[in-house]
Write a structure and sequence with these properties.
Layout (H helix, E strand, L loop, with lengths): L2 H12 L2 H4 L26 E3 L14 H7 L13 H12 L1 E6 L2 E4 L10 E7 L8 E6 L4 E6 L4 H8 L11 E7 L2 H7 L3 H22 L2 E3 L7 H8 L7 E10 L3
Antiparallel strand pairs: 1-6, 2-3, 4-5, 4-7, 5-6, 7-9, 8-9
Helix pairs in contact: 3-7, 4-7, 5-8, 6-7
């Protein structure tokens, strides 16, 4: 065990933002324009409108105490498709915009340091009603899915990228969160990397609770092959890279 490396890592975790950063030297303080709050896409890209919260008909109400009490990691899923409304609900619950979008900020269903929201959400669809198996990206500002790419043997590629965790390939869909670090670095410099990890935890906890509401299950995954997962999503691994996953499928309640 490399105790020196462990000690250094602990110092990073214990550091406060005020100690880690000189706010007078951040890109924000130097007047550099705020980065986009959503990853850009081509004007002619294929987009799929998602059912909006005020139109949902299949999303039941959920008792919060019960959802918290029943929350657990679930790795066994039924061979049942997720509905498009259910996917829309899970995306809204984890990254949906719930308020105004102004000045480079978007107020969402999860907290984020400085309202920077440095995460993007990809969905590897295997069994969702109305969607072809493929990888999509969530567009929170318009509540749409953006078609990213088709991948031969997607289930097998997911299992391979998650170090042989077979249940990932049996989920109806796997939600993959990536970090676009500069969105946070623009404001917080070196301290950005600590709060990006904290933000990912907020998002995945909402996923767990939202799954309980629709009779689905999930299991947070942080053990994966970084390069393989980045390749699967066609990411450069520097300006954007995978940080967390959550396969989702219907479960026996």
């Amino acid at each position: 065990m490399d105790r020196a490396a462990i000690k250094k890592s602990r110092q990073f975790l214990k550091g406060t933002i005020r100690k880690q950063i000189d706010f007078s030297e951040t890109d924000q303080s130097m007047g550099i324009p705020v980065p986009p709050i959503e990853k850009p896409y081509a004007a002619d890209a294929k987009r799929i409108a998602l059912p909006k919260p005020d139109t949902w008909k299949t999303i039941p109400g959920a008792d919060l105490q019960m959802a918290i009490g029943n929350r657990c990691s679930r790795r066994v899923y039924r061979k049942e498709a997720l509905g498009l409304e259910e996917v829309a609900f899970l995306l809204w619950a984890t990254q949906g915009v719930r308020g105004k979008v102004t000045g480079g900020h978007s107020y969402r269903t999860v907290p984020s340091a400085g309202c920077r929201h440095a995460l993007e959400t990809y969905v590897a669809v295997l069994n969702v009603e109305g969607l072809k198996p493929a990888i999509y990206r969530y567009l929170p500002l318009s509540h749409e899915l953006l078609f990213e790419l088709s991948e031969e043997g997607l289930a097998e590629r997911l299992v391979e990228a998650t170090l042989g965790q077979v249940f990932v390939g049996k989920a109806a869909a796997t939600f993959i969160w990536t970090a676009v670090p500069y969105r946070m670095e623009w404001r917080y410099g070196l301290a950005a990397h600590k709060v990006i990890a904290i933000d990912a935890g907020h998002v995945c906890q909402n996923m767990y609770l939202a799954c309980e509401a629709i009779g689905a299950g999930t299991c947070a995954i942080a053990a994966y092959d970084q390069e393989a997962l980045n390749r699967l999503l066609r990411l450069d691994g520097e300006d954007e890279f995978a940080i967390y996953l959550a396969p989702v499928g219907k479960v026996t309640t």
